[in-house]
Design brief:
Length: about 130
């Protein structure tokens, strides 16, 4: 019954914007840290951003700081990733994931902290 479903990916020109959604079902999303990760062909999965459950604190990879913003809408049980000023190197499949333990004060973008993953959504940045 647990589900995380990513949506909002697509093709965008360099400098453009996309907003990704991570919709949860079967659990209360706000009780858990939620992370965004991405994986390009031939590369390992990379942490992009996360938001904590207890404090709402956020963390970002250096490569996306100032361009990406993570947010949470508890009423919709959804986490978003607003991506601005997109670059070709942002091209990847983007995944959201739920932390193994609830009610954490801080979050990290290390994959081992997360135990449940969505199916991914493709983001392609190209002219």
């Amino acid at each position: 019954q647990l589900q995380l479903v990513e949506s909002g990916g697509g093709l965008v020109q360099p400098g453009g914007s996309l907003r990704l959604s991570c919709a949860a079902s079967g659990f209360t999303l706000s009780y858990y840290n939620i992370g965004w990760f991405r994986q390009a062909p031939g590369k390992e999965r990379e942490g992009v951003s996360c938001i904590s459950s207890s404090t709402g604190s956020t963390n970002y990879a250096d490569s996306v700081k100032g361009r990406f913003t993570i947010s949470r809408d508890n009423a919709k049980n959804t986490v978003y990733l607003q991506m601005n000023s997109l670059k070709p190197e942002d091209t990847a499949v983007y995944y959201c994931a739920r932390s193994s333990e609830p009610f954490q004060r801080r979050c990290f973008t290390t994959p081992y902290e997360y135990d449940f993953w969505g199916q991914g959504t493709q983001v392609t940045v190209s002219s």
